[in-house]
Write a structure and sequence with these properties.
Blueprint (H helix, E strand, L loop, with lengths): L3 H6 L6 E6 L17 H9 L4 E3 L7 H6 L13 H5 L4 H4 L2 H9 L2 H4 L7 H9 L10 E6 L11 E6 L1 H13 L7 E2 L5 H5 L1 H6 L7 E4 L3 H11 L4 E6 H9 L9 H13 L4
Parallel strand pairs: 5-6
Antiparallel strand pairs: 1-3, 1-4, 2-3, 4-7, 6-7
Helix pairs in contact: 2-12
Length: about 270
C-alpha cells in the first residue's frame, strides 16, 4: 500500500500500519517472554522496514500491555502504578520484594514525577480507554508491506516539526471541527495503540499526536534521534486524508518552499 501523503511530506521513515490479528508476519521481531522492552522499539523497527509483533506474554512492559490493548495490566504493577508515575513508593522499596523491584525500576522509590501526586496519576489511569482485544497479536508493519484492500487499525507517521505541521493542516482541511488532532498526556504506546483505536470507533475520529512521553523518547533516541513525534491516524481518517491531497496546500508553493529548504538543510541537492 502506498501513501501519497508520505511522498508529499518527504518522510524519512515510511508510515507504520498497526493492527490486531491472530497471526503474525513471518520473521516478525518480538520480545522474549519475561524480558523487558519498550513497545516503541517495535514501532521504530517497523519504520525501518522490519515487521514486529507482541502478544500477551511478550509486550515488553506492563504499560506496553495496556497500550497494546491487552487489558488493564496496571493492576499487576508492583508498588503501584500511580506511585511510580508520581512521587514514588519508598516504603515498598524497603521491603525485600521491593528492593528486588527497585533494582530493575530505580525510579519507583522517588517516582518518575510525570504526575503531581498519586491521586492525579490514578485519575489519568482511570481515564484511559482500556480494552482487552480478542486477537492474539498486535502487529506493526511498514505501510508498503500492507496489501491493497487490507484495513489496518491505525497508520502511524514518524514526523518532524515541519511534517507534523502539514499533517495537522491536512487533518483539518476537509473538516468543520478544527480540533481534529489531539495531544493527550499518555505513554508513547498508548498514543499509537489504545488511543487511536478508541478514536476509530467514532464517526469523525481524531488523530493522536504522540511520542511526547519522556521515557519513550529516551528509549527511542538511539534508534531515530530527537526530531520526531508520532502522528497516529485511525485508518478511516487516513483514507480521508489521502483523498484530500490532490489540489491541497501539499501541492502548492508554500509547502514546496518549506520542503525544499528542509531538503537543502539536510544536505540535499
Amino acid at each position: 500500500m502506498k501513501s501519497h501523503i508520505a511522498e508529499l511530506l518527504d518522510l524519512q521513515y515510511p508510515p507504520v500500519a498497526v493492527h490486531w490479528a491472530n497471526a503474525k508476519p513471518e520473521g516478525a521481531l518480538q520480545f522474549k517472554q519475561g524480558k523487558w522492552g519498550c513497545v516503541m522499539f517495535l514501532l521504530c523497527n517497523a519504520a525501518k522496514g522490519k515487521p514486529a509483533a507482541a502478544d500477551r506474554a511478550t509486550f515488553g512492559c506492563i504499560g506496553g500491555g495496556v497500550g497494546l490493548g491487552f487489558g488493564n495490566m496496571y493492576t499487576q504493577f508492583p508498588g503501584g502504578i500511580a506511585e511510580y508515575l508520581s512521587t514514588g513508593n519508598p516504603e515498598f522499596c524497603r521491603t525485600e520484594f521491593g528492593k528486588q523491584v527497585a533494582q530493575a525500576m530505580p525510579e519507583l522509590e522517588e517516582g518518575e514525577r510525570y504526575c503531581k501526586d498519586p491521586d492525579t496519576a490514578q485519575n489519568f489511569i482511570d481515564g484511559l480507554p482500556m480494552v482487552d482485544v480478542p486477537e492474539q497479536y498486535a502487529v506493526f508493519r511498514p505501510l508498503d508491506m500492507v496489501e491493497d484492500g487490507e484495513r489496518p487499525a491505525t497508520i502511524v507517521f514518524l514526523a518532524n516539526a515541519d511534517q507534523v505541521s502539514a499533517l495537522v493542516v491536512l487533518a483539518n482541511y476537509g473538516r468543520r471541527d478544527r480540533e481534529t488532532v489531539v495531544a493527550p498526556f499518555a505513554a508513547g504506546c498508548h498514543q499509537i495503540g489504545i488511543l487511536p483505536l478508541d478514536e476509530s470507533k467514532k464517526e469523525n475520529p481524531r488523530a493522536i499526536l504522540g511520542l511526547t512521553d519522556i521515557s519513550a523518547r529516551k528509549n527511542t533516541m538511539g534508534m531515530i534521534g530527537h526530531d520526531f513525534l508520532t502522528f497516529a491516524v485511525p485508518f478511516k481518517m487516513f483514507e480521508e486524508m489521502e483523498a484530500l491531497t490532490a489540489g491541497s496546500f501539499l501541492e502548492r508553493g508554500q509547502w514546496g518552499k518549506v520542503r525544499e529548504h528542509a531538503h537543502k538543510s539536510r544536505g540535499g541537492a
